[in-house]
Amino acid sequence: MSVAIVFHSETGNTEGVAKRLASACGGELIPVRDCAGYNRITMYLRGAARARRRELARIEPAVIDISRHSLVVVGSPVWAWSPTPAANAAIAALRGCEGKKGIVFATCGGKPGETLVMMKDALAARGVDVVGAFPFARKDLRDELKLAELVSAVKQAAGQG
Ligand SMILES: Cc1cc2nc3c(=O)[nH]c(=O)nc-3n(C[C@H](O)[C@H](O)[C@H](O)COP(=O)(O)O)c2cc1C
Hints:
The chain has a single domain, classed as Rossmann fold, CATH 3.40.50.360. It has 5 helices and 9 strands, in the order βαβαββββαββαβα. Helix 1 (13-25) packs across helix 5 (144-157). By secondary structure, it is α/β, with parallel strands linked by helices. Strands 1, 2, 3, 5, 6, 8 and 9 form a 7-stranded mixed β-sheet that branches. It has helices at 13-25, 40-52, 85-93, 115-125, 144-157, and strands at residues 3-8, 28-34, 59-60, 64-65, 71-79, 82-83, 94-95, 101-108, 129-137. The chain is 37% helix and 29% strand.
């Protein structure tokens, strides 16, 4: 079974987890870019409010076809205790996801709030059976055991474990 690893990352943390996951499990990395083109200031001034309002960003790619994959992993940074607008849009942009398994993860400073629940609910509304949710606080980013938990869940869901 193959894995699609869809992620948004502005400052590299979520990308880092996604890439380490891909090296451990294989799969297709699908980075999603927010066309708003935030900088470190506008992320807080505009991005956080948009995340709080659960907005969907304009993203590249606009459509994410995962028909040939059996499992979808979605990763998001936490902005204002929520998934980012780009991650919300990525879930809405999925094609061929119905009836498949999913796993979500989020990276944050330490307070993920309802982020993982919102991601799970959004994926479930797209017909995905979410079988795992993993928060990574800043202190967890270099913790091999934390990553191993995610890797193990992905391998199990993908039938590799
Ligand atoms: C606009 C903004 C809002 C944030 N809000 C939160 C938050 O509510 N809780 C938290 O723990 N961290 C928060 N953070 C920290 C990020 O979640 C954390 O640095 C994350 O790993 C960034 O992911 P990235 O490097 O993939 O972009 C926020 C960061 C930004 C830029």
